[in-house]
Write a structure and sequence with these properties.
Blueprint: E1 6-9, E2 12-15, E3 21-25, H1 33-46, E4 50-54, H2 58-70, E5 75-78, H3 83-91, E6 96-99, H4 107-120, E7 124-129, H5 138-143, H6 145-162, E8 168-173, H7 177-190, E9 195-197, H8 205-221, E10 227-229, H9 237-250, E11 259-262, H10 273-284, E12 292-296, H11 299-305, E13 311-315, E14 319-324, E15 327-333, H12 337-350, H13 359-371, H14 380-392
Parallel strand pairs: 3-4, 3-10, 4-5, 5-6, 6-7, 7-8, 8-9, 9-10, 11-12, 12-13
Antiparallel strand pairs: 1-2, 13-14, 14-15
Helix pairs in contact: 1-9, 2-3, 3-4, 6-7, 7-8, 8-9
Bound molecules: iron/sulfur cluster (SF4).
Length: 427
């Protein structure tokens, strides 16, 4: 169930039915204002609604004020052990301060932080980690780790309520996906406050993304969770943001940018689809709309399976087709598929989101589709014709160049995507 209560973290609403907020945490030394702000900006560009920074030392809280002032998104200060730093972070204008009431120095220190937060209208995140539960819950932790986490969180909530403070969200972090799911389900039944979700120390990009998708995805699908962070072992915090968005997009909880659909390929594939998918994904980053774009390895199953896509391509050895909403638009040489796809997408936006259909081209594509069940049956004449078309249409590629004039086209190599044993080669 969604949390009943809502808080505002620097203007970003969390809980009470607000869209699930995406957050991440910088990996830089916070006192290094330039590097920290650069990472915050990259995260904001990738779609972070909120960014947390670690504040373990005096010089970090000094830097915090500048970071807060210059950041494009609200900044949350992450404090452990030192309540003085929490007080200073509130003074520095942090949009929220994350503390673990169990390690900040006792109930009096917690009360001091709460009083300061109350006076300034700063929300708190009160967090419990499976690795740092209060001593009196250690036995329970061994016998029932889920109940131990929920009990600890419940006790901290009671402490906040005794202090007449309700401007907070709660997080319970565990490295265990089943415990994350079970504890948050229980806590969501017991308290009305917004929940921050995360699988702590989830791991590398590959394993961590999957663990987070399973853990957080299960909870979010049940409408539990108001803000999420994906914890990955990577310096590039913006990658955590991208994973968070993919989870929210997959569950259709939020929309951001295009959705790329790509088939897994199989023995019917006759062109270098891995390179095509990488190129399409790169070029789609420039489009803010949530259009669906499909890349399918062959036309036999492809066009029907992607009938809902706004635009799609399907290819074969030498020719392919662009389609929209399951209807053929035009046939093109395989090596022009990506350029022509984006030409169609650009035309769509230039004409106020209308798909412009050239009947002759559409008929030619439909004909290709009807013939294309087995491209290996192409006659030499037809192959020659397709090669001529490819040659006529060559040039005019839209590679992006960086400042030094070097192509940014993604390179898919043999190690990433072997061609040996497949029905195409790569130049
Ligand atoms: S679309 Fe074609 S190539 Fe892709 S998985 Fe399906 S049958 Fe195989």
């Amino acid at each position: 169930m969604a949390s009943e209560r809502q808080i505002s973290v620097g203007g970003v609403l969390v809980g009470g039915g607000a869209p699930v907020a995406v957050q991440t945490m910088t990996k830089t030394e916070t006192a290094n204002v330039g590097e920290t702000l650069a990472q915050v900006e990259r995260c904001a560009e990738a779609g972070a609604d909120l960014v947390r920074v670690a504040v373990p030392r005096e010089e970090d809280v000094v830097a915090l004020q500048t970071i807060v002032e210059r950041s494009p998104v609200p900044i949350i200060a992450d404090i452990h052990f030192n309540h003085t730093l929490a007080l200073k972070a509130i003074d520095a204008g942090a949009a929220c301060v994350r503390i673990n009431p169990g390690n900040i120095g006792g109930p009096e220190k917690v009360a001091e932080v709460v009083a300061a937060a109350n006076a300034k209208g700063t929300p708190l995140r009160i967090g419990v980690n499976s690795g740092s539960l209060p001593k009196h819950l250690r036995d329970l932790e061994y016998s029932n780790p889920v109940e131990a986490l929920v009990t600890a969180a419940g006790e901290f909530v009671e402490l906040m309520e005794k202090l007449d403070f309700t401007n907070f969200k709660v997080s319970m972090k565990s490295t265990s996906v089943p415990n994350t799911i079970a504890s948050n389900r229980l806590l969501a039944e017991r308290i009305p406050y917004p929940l921050h979700l995360g699988v702590t120390e989830a791991g590398t990009k590959w394993a961590g993304s999957l663990k987070s998708a399973v853990g957080l995805g299960t909870l979010l699908a049940d409408n539990i969770g108001d803000t999420i962070r994906i914890s990955l072992s990577t310096f590039h915090a913006e990658e955590e943001v991208k994973v968070a968005w993919e989870i929210l997009k997959a569950l259709k909880l939020r929309e951001r940018g295009p959705v790329l659909i790509a088939c897994p390929t199989c023995g019917r594939l006759q062109f270098d689809m891995d390179s095509v998918v990488a190129e399409v994904e790169r070029r789609l980053e420039a489009y803010p709309d949530p259009i669906e774009v499909a890349v399918l390895g062959c036309a036999v199953n492809g066009i029907g399976e992607a009938r809902h896509a706004d635009f799609g391509i399907t290819g074969a050895k030498d020719a392919g087709m662009i389609f929209s909403k399951g209807e053929p638009l035009k046939k093109v040489p395989t090596d022009r598929l990506v350029d022509e796809l984006f030409a169609e997408i650009d035309r769509y936006y230039e004409s106020d989101r209308q798909v412009l259909r050239d009947e002759k081209a559409a008929a030619e594509a439909a004909q290709w589709l009807s013939e294309n069940e087995d491209l290996s049956a192409l006659t030499p004449e037809r192959m020659a014709q397709l090669e001529q078309e490819a040659s006529d249409a060559s040039g005019g590629g839209q590679d992006l160049l960086d400042a030094a004039g070097v192509s940014q086209k993604p390179v898919v190599d043999e190690e990433q995507s072997p061609t040996a044993g497949r029905r195409f080669t790569r130049a």
